[in-house]
Design goal:
mainly alpha, Growth Hormone, Chain: A, 17 helices, 81% helix, 0% strand, globular, MFS, membrane
Length: 392
């Protein structure tokens, strides 16, 4: 169920990747060239931007009213906005609807993570989240293929119709099966002072703040690739027709990494795995950029290196999240909101900047990956006072 709630977000992004070029053309982006193609990324980034900052509001709301009520409001809004997107034919109106859909989706994501923190902590939480992410990663594997199938038999509007159907299914499932995980006696009053105090506690907790900032930076790489992936495979490698297969392979390796983390994290520890993954991510990105710069673009070496680079996110995400959330179980909703803000709004802005540098080559993308990985590593070193790979 938690994986399904988090999949609302992934589905809203990945199912439309094969259709981005067609949607952009039909809603008014008719100019030719790389710059115009880069603007189609806004259909993704509008949703992600809407998804990020509102979590700062959803956090105190769920800590005050519990998890179920806000979740049902979020799912209803998600369904309505997906339905509205079916009817829109103007680019900016579509972006606005996508932004609002992201706002509602952020509430569902926040509730999902808060429920996990209500029930688990530490390495148990990291293990559970890895299992959730393994199931969740089925969506990025199959969603582009589903989008492609829809395009073969129906216009792109039915892609948003699929979001409506999935939203209704999750609303029914949670209504019937999700218990309230935040007891009434543990709820916090909803006022500005309490909310600001809770967020101040997040900032004053070094481990939480450090891993939150490191996540916000390095996950910019994830969003930059997702938004530009269709362009990369279509324009650089000439694989537009079978893009969904190549993208699914990358997502599949990410799922394998998440499952591997779930099997190892309780034995090895969150820090050891995530710190090694961050170093590997930065090194592989640098190697890919160097080879491409020296020998030119080739799917033969780019793809194997890239799926290994992307797999590092499977060893980073759940561990960084658990490390950030562990000290703040008493304000799980607010802590989850702050972490979600960092890993969506901050990450998407960084990803948008890197994605906009796409120029028909993968080199700007990979250089961006190196810079983000190195910056995140510096923050971790400061947070951990210069000590990596601790067994704590």
């Amino acid at each position: 169920m938690v994986a399904g709630l988090m999949a609302l977000n992934a589905l809203a992004i990945d199912i439309m990747l094969p259709a981005l070029n067609q949607i952009a053309h039909d809603v008014g982006l008719t100019a030719e060239g790389v710059e115009s193609d880069n603007r189609q990324q806004l259909i993704i980034f509008a949703y992600i931007l809407g998804f990020g900052a509102p979590q700062l509001l959803w956090g105190p709301i769920t800590d005050r009213f519990g998890r179920r009520g806000p979740l049902f409001v979020s799912l209803t809004g998600y369904i309505l906005m997906a339905g509205l997107c079916v009817t829109l034919r103007e680019f900016h109106a579509l972006l606005a609807a996508r932004f609002i859909q992201g706002v509602f989706s952020s509430g569902a994501r926040l509730v999902a993570v808060s429920v996990v923190r209500d029930l688990f902590a530490g390495r148990q939480m990291a293990r559970f989240m890895s299992l959730v992410m393994t199931i969740f990663m089925i969506i990025p594997i199959v969603a582009p293929g589903v989008g492609q199938i829809i395009l073969l038999v129906a216009p792109w509007e039915w892609i948003f119709g699929a979001l409506v159907v999935f939203g209704i299914l999750m609303l029914g499932w949670t209504w019937l099966r999700l218990p309230e995980t935040l007891p009434a006696d543990q709820r916090r009053p909803l006022n500005l002072g309490n909310a600001l105090g809770a967020y101040a506690q997040v900032v004053r907790t070094p481990i939480t703040f450090g891993y939150m900032c490191a996540s916000g930076i390095v996950f910019g790489a994830l969003f930059s690739f997702i938004a530009s992936s269709e362009q990369v495979f279509r324009e650089v490698f000439g694989r537009g027709e079978d893009f969904v297969l190549w993208f699914s392979g990358i997502a599949g390796m990410l799922a394998v990494a998440n499952f591997t983390n779930s099997r190892l994290v309780e034995k090895i520890g969150m820090r050891r795995i995530s710190h090694a993954a961050l170093l590997l991510f930065t090194g592989l990105s640098a190697l890919s950029a160097l080879i491409t710069f020296s020998f030119g673009e080739s799917l033969l070496w780019f793809y194997p290196l890239f799926i290994l680079t992307f797999a590092c996110f499977g060893l980073l995400g759940s561990n960084f999240s658990a490390l950030a959330m562990e000290p703040l179980g008493s304000i799980a909703g607010t802590a989850s909101a702050a972490y979600g803000f960092a890993t969506t709004t901050v990450s998407s802005l960084i990803g948008m900047l890197i994605g906009s540098q796409y120029n028909g080559s993968t080199i700007p993308l990979m250089i961006g990956f190196v810079c983000l990985g190195a910056s995140s590593l510096v923050i971790i070193l400061i947070t951990e006072k210069g000590k990596l790979f601790s067994s704590r």
